[in-house]
Design a protein that fits this description.
Two copies of one chain form a homodimer. With 347 residues, chain A is α+β, with helices and mostly antiparallel strands. Helix content of chain A is 31%, strand content 24%. In chain A, a hairpin with a 2-residue loop joins strand 3 and strand 4.
Amino acid sequence: MKLMKKSERILLAHGSGGKLSRQLVEEVILPGIGVAGAVNLDDAAVLQLHGMAGRAKGPRLAFTTDSYVVSPIFFPGGNIGDLAINGTVNDLAMMGARPGFVTVGLVIEEGFALDELEAALLSMRKRALEAGVTIVAGDTKVVERGKADRIFISTSGIGLIPDGREVSGSLLQPGDRILVSGTIGDHGMAVLSQREGLEFRSDIVSDSAPLNSLVEEIFETGAEIHALRDPTRGGLAATLNEFATGSGVGILVEESAVPLEPSVSRACDLLGLDPFYVANEGKLVVSVSETGAEQVLQAMQGHPQGGRAAAIGTASSDHSGTVILQTRVGGKRILDMPTGEQLPRIC
Amino acid sequence: MKLMKKSERILLAHGSGGKLSRQLVEEVILPGIGVAGAVNLDDAAVLQLHGMAGRAKGPRLAFTTDSYVVSPIFFPGGNIGDLAINGTVNDLAMMGARPGFVTVGLVIEEGFALDELEAALLSMRKRALEAGVTIVAGDTKVVERGKADRIFISTSGIGLIPDGREVSGSLLQPGDRILVSGTIGDHGMAVLSQREGLEFRSDIVSDSAPLNSLVEEIFETGAEIHALRDPTRGGLAATLNEFATGSGVGILVEESAVPLEPSVSRACDLLGLDPFYVANEGKLVVSVSETGAEQVLQAMQGHPQGGRAAAIGTASSDHSGTVILQTRVGGKRILDMPTGEQLPRIC
């Protein structure tokens, strides 16, 4: 059923990271770009560089892109520049790659203040240094007043994937343990609180952070890592659903095990939002074979980006393709893929 | 002198590809991104991939990015999708690279018509097939109505640079011949005519085209190629000035030798524009040692993208850093770097 066609116009919800986003990609973008495109159009791809070395197979290169349109561009704990670097670093890291080089495309609205541009650039510089990536190329376009919303930033990144690392949302195995690297919902609520001018604002800060060094720690354990993903747009619920459908497994999540800041929990309650659907920008979800899970958990907890890491669930061959939440009160409910618009322009 | 600081706000002219664009990059963007950034922030970079092969030096990878904000998005001879693929293919080709993989970032305004999106995507598909590149990853963001102008597209590309190719705007030698692959100003005037609804519209079409196969022909000659560039924003004048200042040579250009469509010439006259400053999207300028110039010119003329190629000038050790135009009427004038706003949102 081509739900997409019913609207015939792009809706905000098409950018939400949920079902409508997927429909836009699957029913319009992929068929449109067609055979010239890859089989999927994720924000990241693994390229095998043939004929580049003395080896039968060349090195594997990860290549990713993301556009950032967050509003407001400055929010508690960061700004659009932090997101643009950390997001691309994390996309690469989630493929098992070591991020190396980043390009930056700026679309700036006429009249944008130079000092705000400078602040965003400074953040990019700091985050690039922190993550150990080099910004190697850039492009700047300016559009008339009213034709963009201050500044949009597109970043692309490349990195090499060390031999032996093979992670994908389609590789989960029944029995896998699902771990999350810390509290959920912080980024989305930080942006939203700033946007709405809510009084809980000062308590909540974005978790935007580069995760590549945490990923190295995880692989360092030698455990069997099957999948890695940063739960950004669509939140933890979207990532877990992508894992379940991508791998044909069921996932059972223990709600009480999922780390959550009390301030984020309160803000979600107040606004009627479910933190499972709120974006994160400095967290990862890892699916690891049962035998290595404890080791990975400890490695994460010993890392600055993983202090509050927790084992939150298990993959199984039951209820394949579905994520089930064991709630705090003892019941069970399906944790569905987010549908329409959750929180637009959160990244 | 920090002219940039005087305005303290971004002006349209900062996106024009001329002096103010350069100032924005040199005085704000580079200092802002700082030591994490490369020494320059061109839209393309060459990366030496160390430790990737059985060779002391790994393969050289070109990595580029560009954002497209052209208005209107459909114009005679193409649309924003054509530009986004051809532009990135050409950025790679101008580094001597063989374009391989492209990523696409879409920022779409809420309410944008699906059939227009589909038309732009179809163009991207066709151009990718034509150039032999694979679109491997993508990202889509949607912003509220009035917060963007229909659609902006960011593309990044990577390609391998075959051994022995060493081209740069800083490598021109006195005695080099400067060749252009065809008529100038077509793209800019096609977009402008569409925008202004001018009556000469039907005569002028954008030259948007992938130039990678033409570049292969040029290298195939074995001639000593020093510099390659596609004269986009800022036109032929900007490219020649970048060559002159980058290499510390003077360039003398014969105005009568520069190919120009009569319709473009008439439109420029009518609007008081100088075709040397108008953007091209399917032309290249090559600086080649005198001995190989004739061979390269013939190779270009035998290629579909170079039928009207011409030798237009010479590099010398005189008037270093300056481009001088030998005019049709016999005089000489300096062909300066474009200053402020020429034609905004031409690409």
